[in-house]
Write a structure and sequence with these properties.
Layout: H1 5-12, H2 19-35, H3 45-54, H4 64-73, H5 125-137, E1 140-143, H6 148-156, E2 169-174, E3 183-185, H7 187-195, E4 200-205, H8 223-230, H9 236-242, H10 247-261, H11 266-273, H12 278-285, E5 289-295, E6 305-310, H13 315-323, H14 326-336, E7 350-355, E8 360-361
Parallel strand pairs: 1-2, 2-4, 6-7
Antiparallel strand pairs: 3-5, 5-6, 7-8
Helix pairs in contact: 7-12, 13-14
Biased composition (Basic residues): 24-38
Region (Disordered): 1-61
Protein name: F-box domain-containing protein
Length: 363
């Protein structure tokens, strides 16, 4: 019988590999081939994981605690106050091809606007959800009276309850001689304060917040420049080249005149908007007071009218009018709500009470 090659080797006494061992060697060779990646094939899973680990992380990849810390540093400037350091004006008609930004820079200090981090609220859904409430309640705004409702509805939605994430400061840029601004509706501002007492309202003369104003008219005939020329303190050629250097002095003098003669009531008005009498706040929140208006139309700037309109059929009206005349009831209501406490020595607000659908009277 013919012998196979393996049989011959056994006869000659040479060791032979078993069939099982041969299969194991073949599997090992195949596994080594599998471990070596072919040219142009995908990287192994371990290399992909390493690359992912070394990839730079973004804000959303960080733990929530780290993101909150970053949000803490991304806070807007919060030291705006008065007309001298007013919040840059938000104007819904700018930023649309007219050369001005809707979110302007401060004109006098050349500092950034009060909305430096607004863009962070518009990056992605996660950051918007986390950071937008923080940005809103730390923000400061200045708007013309007619745009306050537009701003609130844009950022807080229609039917806002004014109790969540309201701005820290709302400045009203007021020009009583402008069309429609001699009769202002204060109702929404009072409801916002009643729901969010931390929100501060401040009226500032719009004329004084502008880079150009009536005080510029005095620069052509500056008495301070004339005195300096007369006493040889200023060279007339240098003055003609550089212009009048007394811009701020004229502006402050104009401000003193304007605040004393035309806007003496603004301090009382600010105190009225911040009035914290418990009964008064309850009337605002419960809609017992349905409308409050400021009227400066008659030119009595020292004592403008504030008309408070009460809901017809409310308990306040029925209880007061049962025993007293409308005039006496109005006087008692204003005294009970301590509304006269907001008046100052320079100016006062003249309060009137009105009933919806009924008679009205003033104390």
């Amino acid at each position: 019988m013919a012998l196979t090659r393996a049989g011959k080797k056994r006869e000659l006494g040479s060791p032979a590999l078993s069939s099982g061992k041969g299969q194991a060697t073949k599997k090992a060779k195949n596994s080594n081939k599998a471990k070596t990646p072919k040219k142009g094939s995908a990287a192994p899973a371990s290399l992909a994981a390493q690359e992912k680990k070394n990839k730079p992380k973004g804000l959303v990849d960080m733990p929530p605690e780290i993101r909150n810390r970053i949000y803490h540093f991304a806070t807007e400037r919060d030291n705006f106050e008065g007309w001298e350091d007013a919040v840059p004006l938000i104007d819904m008609h700018t930023g649309h091809g007219c050369g001005r930004s809707q979110w302007p820079m401060s004109k006098y200090e050349c500092s950034l606007s009060a909305r430096n981090f607004l863009g962070l609220t518009q990056t992605c859904k996660l950051i918007r959800k986390e950071y937008r409430p923080i940005w809103l309640r730390n923000s400061s705004i200045r708007v013309l009276p007619r745009y306050l409702s537009v701003y609130i509805h844009t950022f807080y939605g229609c039917g806002a309850d004014y109790s969540t994430n309201m701005p820290k400061l709302i400045q009203i840029s007021h020009c009583q001689d402008a069309f429609g601004q001699n009769n202002l509706d204060l109702t929404e501002m009072l409801r916002m304060h009643a729901a969010s007492p931390a929100t501060k309202f401040e009226f500032v003369p719009h004329e004084l917040t502008q880079e150009e104003g009536l005080w510029n008219d005095r620069l052509d005939d500056c008495f301070m420049c004339e005195e300096e020329i007369m006493f040889g303190e200023t060279d007339i050629d240098e003055l003609e080249e550089n212009g009048c250097p007394h811009f701020e002095e004229h502006r402050e003098a104009f401000a003193d005149f304007l605040l004393m003669e035309q806007y003496p009531y603004l301090l009382a008005l600010d105190k009225f908007l911040a009035h914290d009498n418990a009964k008064w706040l309850a009337d605002i929140q419960d809609r017992e007071v349905i409308r409050v208006k400021l009227d400066t139309y008659d030119g009595e700037y020292g004592s403008p009218d504030v008309t408070i309109r009460l809901r017809h059929g409310s308990e306040i009206v029925t209880q007061k009018l049962k025993k007293k005349s409308m005039s006496d009831a109005a006087s008692d209501y204003i005294k009970d709500r301590s509304l006269r406490d907001v008046n100052t020595g320079h100016a006062s607000l003249h309060f009137q009470l009105q009933i919806c659908g009924g008679s009205h009277g003033s104390p």
